Amino acid sequence: MSDAALREVLRSPLDDLPPSHRSAWAAVAALLVAAGCGFGVGAGVRALERASTDEAPPATTEATTSTSAPASIAVSDVTVAAVAAFRQGGKLYVVVTTTVLPGADPEETTGLGSAHWVLRLPNGSQATATAEYTTSAAPGVFTVEFPDADPSGGAQLLLYPAEDVIEGTFTTTRDSTQLPYEGPLDTEGGRLGMSYRLGGQEISFHKIRLDDAGGELGWHLSGDSTARAVVDAGATYTEVDGRLQSIVPESRLPYASLMALPGSAPPARSGSLHLFHLDDASDPTFRSRFFGDPERVVAVEDLQLTLTVRLYRYGEDPVALPLDLPVSGDAQPAPTPGTTSPSTTAAPTDGVEALAAFVDDLMGNDGFSGVVLAARGEEVLYEAAAGWADRAAERPVQPDTKFNLGSMNKMFTATAILQLIEAGVLALDGTIADYLADYPNEEVARQVTIEQLLTHTSGLGDVFTEEFAADPHRYRSNADYLPLFVDEPLQFTPGERFSYSNAGFVVLGLVIERVTGLTYDQYVQDNIFEPAGMLDTAAYDIEDQVPDLALGYTTQDINGEETGVLRPHTDLMPGRGFAAGGGYSTAGDLLRFRQALFGGRLLSAESVDLLITGKVQVREGAMYAFGFFDRLEAGRRVVGHGGGAPGICSSLGIYPETAHTVVILSN
Question: Is the pTM above the cut of 0.70?
Answer without folding.
Answer: no
